[in-house]
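Collaborator request, handled under Task 6.
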Amino acid sequence: MTEITDLTNSSAKSKFILYWGDMGSQWGVNRSVAQVHALLYLTETPLNAEQISDQLGIARSNVSNSLKELVGWRLIHRVPVPGDRREHFAAETDVWEMALLIAKGRKEREIDPAIRAIDVCVSQAESEPGLHPTVLTRMHEMQDFLTTADRWSDQMLTVPKSKLSLLMKMGDKVLSLLNIGSKRNE
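Structure tokens returned to the collaborator:
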């Protein structure tokens, strides 16, 4: 486990960073990347790689790789600090903006390639002699599901953050409006 050197292990900040790293690894994100992100998210002033390395107790090379990945996701950005030639970094602190950036990034890296791969398979299956009809049906069902999910995702990414927040907070009110989720309909 990453050692956080300048924070006591019982501090809330330390626990948040450790838990965020743990959650990140469960979501397929390198633990160190998630911990660097958490540290920058909680820190009030931009930090350089050496400061991050010292505070988290992880190798400088690991910090550099983590910073590159986080910049690529646009979850952090470089911040010039007067009188210091080193690069400093700060995190996006708007949680809704972070969620949207992560959703967009995952869509580009995971969903879009899956859609293209399924489209290729369906195209080949449609002209493949001897293919059992069930195989083609199931491929079409997967293609339809991914297309629908992609369209919904695109729509959600265009909803203003304030409206998206309101929509999510409405939760079961939306379900009841649609007459979904009640015991009567099960």
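The cover message to the collaborator said: "Residues 4 and 16 are 11 Å apart (CA to CA). The beta strands are 47-48, 76-81, 84-91. Please let us know whether this matches your experimental observations."
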